[in-house]
Amino acid sequence: MKRLSLRDNQFRIIDSGHETHVFDDPELDVVIVDAAPVSRQYYAGEFDPSAPKAPTCWSDDTARPSPNVPEAQREAVRCIDCPKDIRGSGSNGGRACRYSQRIVVSMDEYQDVYALQLSATSVFGSDSSGMPLQAYAKFLAARNVSAISVVTQMSFDRSSHTPKLFFRAVRPLEQDEFNNVRDLKNDPDTKKLLQFETVVPQPSSMPFSVVEGGYANGD
User: Fold this and answer.
1) Residue 195's domain spans which residues?
2) N or C, where is the chain less crowded by C-beta within 10 Å?
């Protein structure tokens, strides 16, 4: 499995668990091929980026723990009742159980796909410096433009202490490029990248539901 990492505010390609390339440029042009629904993860203890691991408890729909979470590890029957969902239960006054969103992107000749885990700061909110993913998706939807039909530039917010991305449209895809990306979207291997178990989440590099032409609100 190939994915993009945002460690140290640099785009990095991780292939089968090994870092194979580090981009020098803080901006990266991609096509957003697909996105998973918003999810949540809770990690017991400190997260070690040098040794990624599966979370202790997680939810695929932000309502209840995933059926794949061992019963002994489930923090509550419903997320709304979970003590890890209370502000202050995590570091810096936040929630210990964090929202996340996985997207799949393609770049260059649009022959391959990469999973990318985004934090809430890269997805929600508003910022005068740029558009987080949700704001960008609304921008596209208001113009009846699908994210899969345009080249999107992802760039780091240099004022943020943790990896935070902004998104902006660069240009529409040429027809042959769009055909390649459409085929990638329909490929079963792309769908696998969106499945929770295929991606090792990273709380420091990590949310909204997919709608036609973009994404809907998540919270």
Assistant:
1) 2-43+100-215
2) C
On whether residue 176 sits in a domain, the answer given is yes
| Alpha carbon 5 to its chain's center | 10
Encoded tokens for 26:
């803080």
The verdict on residue 73 lying in a domain is no
Query: What is the pLDDT, as a whole number, of residue 126?
Result: 81
The answer to the question of residue 37 being in a domain is: yes
6 domain residue, yes or no: yes
Q: What is the 3-state secondary structure (H, E, C) of 22-67?
A: ECCCCEEEEEEEEECCCEEEECCCCCCCCCCCCCCEEECCCCCCCC
4 near 14, Cβ under 8 Å?
yes
Sequence-separated contacts (24+) of 25-30 with Cβ below 8 Å: 26/155, 26/156, 26/158, 27/153, 27/154, 27/155, 27/156, 28/107, 28/153, 28/154, 28/155, 29/107, 29/151, 29/152, 29/153, 29/154, 29/170, 30/105, 30/106, 30/107, 30/151, 30/152, 30/153, 30/154
Consecutive sets of 10 residues in the chain, 219 residues long: mean pLDDT of each?
A: 92 93 96 90 75 82 91 93 90 83 93 92 86 93 96 94 94 96 94 66 37 33
pLDDT at 115: 95
Count structural domains, the chain: 1
Task: Output the six-digit token pair for 86.
Answer: 């209370």
